[in-house]
Amino acid sequence: MTELSERPRVSPRLVGSLPTGFLAATWQQPAEGRTFGVTDPATGEVVAQVADCDPQDAMTALDAACAVAPSWTRTSPRHRADVLHRVYSLMHERREHLAGLITLEVGKTLTEARGEVDYAADYVRWYAEEAVRPAGRSTTAPNGEYQILTVAEPVGPCLLITPWNVPLAMATRKAAPALAAGCTAVLKPSELTPLSSIAFAQLVLDAGAPPGALTLVTTVSAGPLCAQVMADERLRKVSFTGSTAVGRTLLSHAGARVLRTSMELGGNAPFIVFDDADLEVAVEQAVIAKMRLGGQSCVAANRFLVQDGIAGRFATALGERLAAYRLGPGDADGVGLGPLVDDRAVDKATRLRDDALARGATLVAQAQMPEPQVASRGSYFAPVVLDLVPPDAAITHEEVFAPVAAITRFRTEDEAVALANDTEHGLVSYLFTQDLTRASRVTGLLQSGMVGINRGLVSDVAAPFGGIKQSGLGREGGPEGITEYQQLKYVAAPGLRT
Fold first, then answer.
1. Which of 112, 116, 264, 476 is the catalytic position?
2. Which single residue of 162, 193, 343, 359 has CA 20 to 30 Å from 116?
3. Per-residue pLDDT of the chain in tens (498 residues, 90 and over written 9)
4. At what angle do helices 110-130 and 77-93 cross, to 10 degrees?
C-alpha cells in the first residue's frame, strides 16, 4: 500500500490508502519494487510513494488491455453505458476523497478541486449516453445497384497520456470515450499527479469494467516507456495532452507506425477587449480566464490585448481583483489561490514577469505572498498585472502557466487580429465587444480552434475541445470526441429494389 504522510489539514478519510501501481488489472509493485515520491506543492513534503514502472511493466499493462479487448469490443453498447453510468455515480459518492487527492497533488483549492471532480464526472456521463447513440449510415449508391453502408468500429487498444494540471478531468475526457466506443486503454498520468488517476482506475474496476479494460502505469521515465508501447503493433491509438514539444516527439513515434493520434497541445490564448466592451463583464471574465487553475491551463488567457480607449480602466480594475487574492495551502480556510505545481513553474513565471518589466512594462498591482513560514515551504507565486507589455516580451510568445496578466495595448481592429494571430499556437481566443457584427467578423479572422465571445470559459463536455496550428490535432468532448476512438468501415451491400 502507498504510505501517505500525516497532514493536519487533510483528513485521512479524504486521502485514504492507495495501491502503488495498476498493472494487468491488479495493484502491485513493479518487478523490482521501484517507487517515486509525490510531492505536495503547498509544503514541499513527499506525501506518497507510487510505482515507478519501466517499459517492460508497461508492456504487461498493454498485454492486459489487449487480452480483454475482443470481449470488451463485443459487449453491447448498453452494457458499456451502464458501466460508465456506475462510474459517474461512484465519482459523486467519492467526491470528497477525489477532491482531497487533487488538492494534495496539484495544490489547487478544495473548492476548485471539487469543481474538477464534477467536471470530470460529467465527461463520464456524457459518453455513457454517447455509447448507445448509433453511428454510421445507409444509403443507396448513385447508380441504384447497391447499398452504401458505413459502420463505426472501435479503433483498438489505446495509450492515453494525461497532464498534471487537471489530472482527473483529463483522465475521464480520454478514458470515457475510449471505453464507450469499445476500446481498451493504458493510462499514463503525469508523474507529478498520479494519485487521482490511480483512484479513478480503481473506481472503473469497482463499477464493473473487466480487469484490463483500463490499465494504469506510473513512471518518472515517460519517454522510454511510451516509445516502447507505441512501437508495439497491437497499439492502435495515442491520445496526449501536454506541451507542443512533447507532442512533436510523440507524433514522430506515431508516424513510424501510422498510429491514430489525438494531440491537445500548448496554447497562447489572446484575450481581446475592444473599446465598446462592457468593462464590468470583461474584467469579470478576465479573472475567470486568467485565474482558473491559477493560470495553469492551456486555455488560460495568456495575452490581454486591450484597445487604447479602455485599457487604463481595464488594467486598474483587473489589478484590484488579482491583488485581492489570498494565497496559501489549497485546503486552508479562506484561501483563494493555492501554490503552483512546483518550483520550476515559479521560476518560469518569475522570469517572464521580470523580462516584461525589463522591456518597459509597468507593474499595475500584485497580490501579497503568504506569511514567510508558509511561503518558504511551498511553490507560491503572487498574482500580478502588467500593463504596456511590448509585443517582443517573452511572455507574448511563451505559455506562462501562472497568474501573470500581461496587457498589450492596440489601436485598430486589424492590429488586434494581427497581434492575436502572431503565434504558432491556435487553441482558443477570447473576444469582448458589444458590436455583434464586429464579433462575427473578428471571429472569422482569428486562427484558433475555439472562440469565446464575451465569455472567459469555453470548456464544456458537450462541445468539441481542441486547436489548430501547433496546438494539436483532433477533438475531445461533444459527439466528436467518441469518433476519435472509432474507425469507419464501408460496406458495399446488395441493394433493396422495390
1. 264
2. 343
3. 232 233 333 333 333 444 444 333 334 455 567 899 999 999 999 999 999 999 999 999 999 999 999 999 999 999 999 999 999 999 999 999 999 999 999 999 999 999 999 999 999 999 999 999 988 899 999 999 999 999 999 999 999 999 999 999 999 999 999 999 999 999 999 999 999 999 999 999 999 999 999 999 999 999 999 999 999 999 999 999 999 999 999 999 999 999 999 999 999 999 999 999 999 999 999 999 999 999 999 999 999 999 999 999 999 999 999 999 999 999 999 999 999 999 999 999 999 999 999 999 999 999 999 999 999 999 999 999 999 999 999 999 999 999 999 999 999 999 999 999 999 999 999 999 999 999 999 999 999 999 999 999 999 999 999 999 999 999 999 999 999 999 999 999 998 664
4. 170
Question: CA distances (Å), 50 to each of 30, 159, 188, 307, in order?
Answer: 10, 20, 13, 50
Task: Measure the CA–CA gap between 39 and 42, rounded to whole angstroms.
Answer: 9
426 beta partners: 468
> Which superfamily is assigned to 12-265+473-488 in CATH?
Aldehyde Dehydrogenase; Chain A, domain 1 (3.40.605.10)
> Locate cell 479503433: which residue?
155
Sequence spans of domains, the chain: 12-265+473-488, 269-460
Output the nine-digit C-alpha cell for 259.
498510429
CA angle 367, 373, 376 (to 5 degrees): 75
Residue tagged active-site, from 298, 399, 476, 484: 298
264 among known catalytic residues: yes
C-alpha pair distances (Å), 458 with each of 133, 268, 285, 430: 25, 15, 11, 9
Q: For residue 283, give the 3-state DSSP assignment.
A: helix
What is the rounded distance in angstroms from the CA atom of residue 64 to the CA atom of residue 181? 18
Q: Is 298 annotated as catalytic?
A: yes
Centroid of chain to Cα 94: 21
The torsion defined by the Cα of 69, 71, 75 and 77, in degrees rounded to 10, comes to 10
Fold of 269-460: Aldehyde Dehydrogenase; Chain A, domain 2 (3.40.309)
DSSP state of 465: B
Q: How far apart are the first and last CA of the chain?
A: 67
Is the entire prediction scored with pTM above 0.90? yes
Q: Contact, 323 vs 366, CB < 8 A? A: yes
